[in-house]
Amino acid sequence: MAYALDPEVAAAVARMPGTPLTDLVAMRGMESRLAEFFGEPDTSGVDVLDTTVPGPEGAPDIPVRLYTPQGVEGGPVPLVFNVHGGGFVIGSIELDHPGCLEICRELGVVVASVEYRLAPENPYPAGLEDCYAALTAVVAASGKLGIDPDRVALHGASAGGGLAAALALLCRDRGGPRLCFQYLGIPELDDRLGTPSMVAFTDTPGWNRPNAEISWDAYLGPGRRGGDDVPVYAAPARATDLTGLPPAYISVMQFDPLRDEGIAYAQALLAAGVNVELHLFPGTFHASRLARHAEVSRREGAEEIAVLRRALLG
Q1: 3-state secondary structure the chain
Q2: Which of 9, 107, 192, 226 could be joined to 291 by an S-S link, Cβ 3.0–4.6 Å?
Q3: Running along the chain, 314 residues long, what does each successive block of 10 average in pLDDT?
Q4: Shortest CA distance to 279 belongs to which of 301, 312, 311?
Q5: Which residues contact 79 (CB under 8 A, 6 or more apart)?
Q6: Can you give the pLDDT at residue 164?
Q7: 128, 147 in Cβ contact below 8 A?
Q8: What is the pLDDT of residue 21?
Q9: pTM for the full predicted model
């Protein structure tokens, strides 16, 4: 199918890594192929520390990468807790390394990026429980890390956005860390795959329905996708009670199968009395922001920083 893509992002499609999830071994090496889009990351003004925190009971320790701004004075600073994307089955903290550096440097906040276990080797709830354990551990160490525990924001894109939404639900229901904001970029939220955009976009660049089917089957386990027993913490679009959640920002891309579930989640949050900002970027596709030169990608990046600045720094 032909799509009316923004010309600047359309020109980058041929240079982007392929996205078939049928070969996870090959796709898990994608960080090196993405280097040409990112270039050498700028680490100026940021101290980077790789550490581990205890995992859930019976699970291994969880790698966490901490980004601390240099030269910041005046007391504790906010925390941005980052969850990387990758359809629940690929990706790592390396995937979001340039973006975490930028958030830390531009806002003067601490960023913690979590390396959660991937499916299908570790299906739900492993990845989500890793995120919860890591968030809890980082906030518990707020005094040592110079973090203000009352200014904690979740941040994630794609599957990371879906996990961040689930993490907000889990924190509310377990009485976990207090959250002041959730940034949900192009979130993967609904295993039922029934929205108009999910049905229509079977061959879009960046992400498509066949990949979504593989992703959810891996995350939930074979035969569970779309069934009646999928928990809301696995697929937040299923949640019927969204009251008491922190304010949210949700971005969606025009030619992304995840588009309509992101819009629907924003509407559901609004109906529950949660403050929400929703932005649809025209002419874009899932992960089209990798075309960093494109004007629409620059706007998306600038808005991310502006939204987090407003939420965390006033």
Answers
A1: CCCCCCHHHHCCHHHCCCCCCCCHHHHCCHHHHHHHHHCCCCCCCEEEEEEEECCCCCCCCEEEEEEEECCCCCCCEEEEEEECCCCCCCCCCCCCHHHHHHHHHHHCCEEEEECCCCCCCCCCCHHHHHHHHHHHHHHHCHHHHCEEEEEEEEEEECHHHHHHHHHHHHHHHHCCCCCCEEEEECCCCCCCCCCHHHHHCCCCCCCCHHHHHHHHHHHHCCCCCCCCCCCCCCCHHHCCCCCCCCCEEEEEEEECCCHHHHHHHHHHHHHCCCCEEEEEEEEEECCHHHCCCCHHHHHHHHHHHHHHHHHHHC
A2: 9
A3: 93 76 82 65 95 98 98 91 97 94 98 98 98 98 97 98 99 98 99 98 96 98 97 98 98 98 99 98 96 95 98 95
A4: 301
A5: 109, 110, 111, 112, 138, 139, 142, 145, 147, 148, 149, 151, 152, 153
A6: 99
A7: no
A8: 85
A9: 0.97
Q: Report the catalytic residues.
A: 158, 256, 286
Q: What does the alpha-carbon distance between residue 157 and residue 289 come to, in Å, rounded to a whole number? A: 11
- 257 prior amide bond cis, ω within 30: no
The reported pLDDT for the residue numbered 12 is 87
Q: Which of 141, 175, 136 is closest to 154 using CA atoms?
A: 136
